[in-house]
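Let's practice the habit of predicting before peeking. Look at the sequence and jot down your guess about where helices and strands might fall. Then scroll down.
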Amino acid sequence: MSNRPAPKYDEPTDVSIVRTAISALLVVAGIAWVVVYAVKGIDEPPKIQWMYDLEDWNWLIGFGMVMVGLVFAANKATPLGRGRGVVVGMLGCFLLGLAWIVIYYFTANDADFPLFSDLGQYNLVVGIALMATGFVYATKWE
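Done guessing? Here is the structure:
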C-alpha cells in the first residue's frame, strides 16, 4: 500500500446565493401558480381569463417550475446540493412523491378533496415527477 493522498475534488466552498435564490423562487412561484389556478382560474365564469384559457397547461407550468427549481437546487453550489442536503432533497422528493400517489389513490373517488380531484390522472405524473427529481439528488450523493 502506498501513502498517496486521496484525490481532491473541486467542490465549491461558498454557497451561491444567486443559485439558491433562483431555486427557491422557482419552487415558490410554481406553488403559487398552482394555488392561484386552483382557487381562481378553474371557476366558471373565470376570474383570471388568460389563466383559464391555458386550461390544463397551468398544471404543467406550476408543477414544472417546482420540479425545475428542485433540480436547479441539486447543484453543489446550493445547500441542498451538498452533504446532508442531498440526502434531505433525495428522501424528501421520494417520500413526497410516494405520499402524493398514495393520497391520490385513497381520495380518487372523493370529489370534495381539493387539488387532487382537479388534477385527476395527472396526480400520477406529479408523483412520478417528484420521485424522478429524487433520483437527480441520488446522483449527487457521495
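How did you do? The CA atoms of residues 97 and 130 lie 5 Å apart.
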